Amino acid sequence: MDACFVSLDRKVKDRWGDPVARVRIGHHDHDLKIGHYLATKAEQVLKQMGAHNIGANIASAPPPKLVAGGCRFGVDPANSVLDPDCRAHEVNNLYVSDGSFMPTGGSVPYTWTIYANAFRVAERILASL
């Protein structure tokens, strides 16, 4: 189940009378599966290196840093905001090239991924002109 999404509040309005955003931050079951896999592998490597008293904590809470998501990309407009070229499904001239196209950054620095994707998106924009 996908528990991360942004929806519009039906009751709360901004000063222009538009519904405000409601942000739901949850997790996907696969996030926990990956976390446990990585923790197990890391423990094996550390033990082989001679480490003792190794501990790991896998949680479903999103990391407090390196936040991504918000405009997930994909082929199905029902499950994504952007197409694979990071163009909004419903707005032909709107491209998003920051970290929000990725559902998660995997808790590692992904700045270079954002750079690379921005150049890729720029090429798509140039090709469309």
Strand order of the largest sheet: 1-2
Order of helices and strands: EEHH
Q: List the uncertain runs.
A: none
Using the CA coordinates, give the radius of gyration.
Answer: 19 Å
Sheet-strand content, in percent, reads 5-15%
Number of helices: 2
What is the overall pLDDT average?
A: 86
Q: What general outline do the C-alpha atoms trace?
A: globular
**Helix content bin:** 25-40%
User: What structural category do the secondary elements indicate?
Assistant: alpha+beta
Major sheet attributes: 2 strands, antiparallel
The number of distinct β-strands equals 2
End-to-end Cα distance: 39 Å
Description:
This protein is α+β, with helices and mostly antiparallel strands. 29% of the residues lie in helices and 12% in strands. The chain is built from two helices and two strands; from the N terminus they run E-E-H-H. It has helices at residues 29-48, 111-128, and strands spanning 5-13, 19-24. It has a two-stranded antiparallel sheet with strand order 1-2. A hairpin with a 5-residue loop joins strand 1 (5-13) and strand 2 (19-24). It is globular. 7% of the residues are buried. The mean pLDDT is 86.
